[in-house]
Amino acid sequence: MTADWDGAAWSRERVSLVNRWLEEAVERRAGGTRIREAMHYALMAGGKRLRPLLVLAAGEAMDPRSERWREPAVAVEFIHTYSLIHDDLPAMDDDDLRRGRPTCHKVFGEAQAILAGDALLTEAFGVLAEARAQWPAAAVADAVALLAEAAGARGLVDGQARDLAAEGQAVGLADLEAIHRRKTGALITAAARLPAVLAGQAAWDAALGAYGRHVGLAFQIADDILNVVGDPKMLGKPTGTDDAHDKATYPRLLGLEGARRRAEDEVAAARASLEGLRGTEALIWLATAAVDRER
Amino acid sequence: MTADWDGAAWSRERVSLVNRWLEEAVERRAGGTRIREAMHYALMAGGKRLRPLLVLAAGEAMDPRSERWREPAVAVEFIHTYSLIHDDLPAMDDDDLRRGRPTCHKVFGEAQAILAGDALLTEAFGVLAEARAQWPAAAVADAVALLAEAAGARGLVDGQARDLAAEGQAVGLADLEAIHRRKTGALITAAARLPAVLAGQAAWDAALGAYGRHVGLAFQIADDILNVVGDPKMLGKPTGTDDAHDKATYPRLLGLEGARRRAEDEVAAARASLEGLRGTEALIWLATAAVDRER
Asked: Do A148 and B129 touch (CB under 8 A)?
């Protein structure tokens, strides 16, 4: 890592870029439709953009032109946003607030929220297919397969189903990891891997797969810790809700200090996965930022 | 059309084949997950399989080996089934019965139904990406783009959003067609076109696009007519619901006879779209069957 490398500046610039891409993608794919506004509201709620930043950090290590990674960056944020909209629904986690604002169904009603989620999920694949203007078609087809696997019945959806089933049950560390590997880990890992798949870089793909799994877990542990010690104003949502719902979390299973140590171990393992590769400053910075954060 | 060509037998054999493919696809992509059962229940409810039959009818005209068209056939039925699950939800159409059985959320609860729909939608793209074992990757990427467009914010989802918004409104014939072109027409058209896209057959693609638009409309008009004069036992759901909900339909706008004539016109136009092409027996039979049916 170069001594003067400014991760905060890198991240700030990329978040602006991603936000512009997201605006353009919604307009291009949903402009003039009845569902555009709900999609836009949920997408532009000011998220951290961790997943598109992972795409860019991994991608720029292989090709520094950010534009080359536009489609996978937009696709993973579309998927992430759809999953938040559906997770917040009354039949699911029944959350009224997200990032300090009313959740999508609170503003647009349940029907529109379900449809906005469906549209974002579907359009994610449409956006990713657009990458065939930049990358070989075989790589794009592989990328579609990877994203479907990460988001589908054995990935994100299974994680959410397991999480709902675990409510009020005795959940051990192995179960907790099985949930999070799917619910947050699968898409985070896919975000890190997609650029390597598009660029056909097998060595990067293996390293980024390991990196993504460690970062995903570190990120989730940090989320659990913030639910205990975070500032509700910074988080844009109440804290203490996991305890109130009697939910299994890393701090409950490992203690607050144990959870912090575990998160640090995962960050160290993520860094170690990248050894011997060049241009990994942003990836390393992001791994640390996934844990050292206030929201 | 050969005089002895038996459409009913062709259809029966293909439905069996499609059902086996669907069983295998659920097992392969969702086996061992918590969401498998709800996906399976909704998928195997005994639908007419119109969309996969369209894939096979169009595909077999270009290559008679049914197996070549497996992935697009499964993908369109996954998308169709997801759309039914979400449409039936309490926040949407709030239907308790579908094909004579309790709807997915009635059996598995709303959360599982939302997730089963999400999983089917996502896995549809995973299944379609599997077609790269049979077809050129560029064609598979084009097929993914086509399916995303048909199912996404300007297709199926916009149709459902417009349909919900139209409830209790004065809806004219142009509005009604705008709804149905998206809500049912887009996916039916995509089903007919996908084989031509995979096989890279531009002339077929144009003809099948026109054919699909006419069949889609004919099918929807027939649905509206069945809601007036159909047998609830055959349909597996109550009739008269459109009138009860004060819903705009073809029989209400054109009268029962006018609607029937319009459906016949669409079938004739669908047939005309195929003029000059060979091996179209199944496509012609399906266009007629979309209208002459009891369920």
From this structure: yes
Planar angle of CA B128, B132, B136, nearest 5 degrees:
120
- In angstroms, the CA A119 to CA B162 distance is 14
On chain B, the residues whose CB falls within 8 A of the CB of A162 are 34
Q: Per the structure block, which two tokens stand in for A66? A: 């950010």
Count other C-beta atoms under 10 Å from residue A93's C-beta. 18
Taking the C-alpha atoms of residue B225 and residue A135, their distance in angstroms, rounded to an integer, is 48
Burial of B107 (0-12, 13-18, 19+ CB in 10 A): middle
Q: How many CB pairs under 8 A join A and B?
A: 165
Return the closest-CA partner of residue A224 out of A157, A158, A290, A288: A290
Give the model's pLDDT for residue B2: 54
Cβ–Cβ below 8 Å for B154 and A109? no
**Amino acid at site A59:** G
| Amino acid at residue number A232 | P
Query: CB count, 10 Å around CB of A168?
Result: 9
Q: Decide if B159 contacts B183 (C-beta within 8 A).
A: yes
ipTM: 0.96
Q: What is the pTM of this model?
A: 0.97
- CATH no. for residue A125? 1.10.600.10
pLDDT at B293: 87
- Residues 88 to 127 of B: which have CB under 8 A from any A CB? 89, 91-92, 109-112, 114-115, 117-119, 121-123, 125-126
Give how many domains chain B has, as a whole number. Answer: 1
Closest CA in chain B for residue A30: B153
The answer to the question of residue B1 being in a domain is no
**pLDDT per residue as tens digits for the range B95-125:** 999 888 999 999 999 999 999 999 999 999 9
Q: Which residues of A touch B94 (CB under 8 A)?
A: none
A206 and chain B in contact, CB less than 8 A: no
CA distance A158 to chain B (A): 6
- Contact assessment for residue B79 and residue B156, using Cβ atoms and an 8 Å cutoff: yes
Residue A42, domain extent:
7-289
Q: Is A263 helix (H, G, I), strand (E, B) or coil?
A: helix
Tokens read off for A283: 């990836």
Query: Residue B109: which of B136, B88, B140 has the closest Cα?
Result: B88
Helix B110-129 and helix B36-43, axial crossing angle in degrees, nearest 10: 80
For the record, the structure tokens of B8 come out as 């009913």
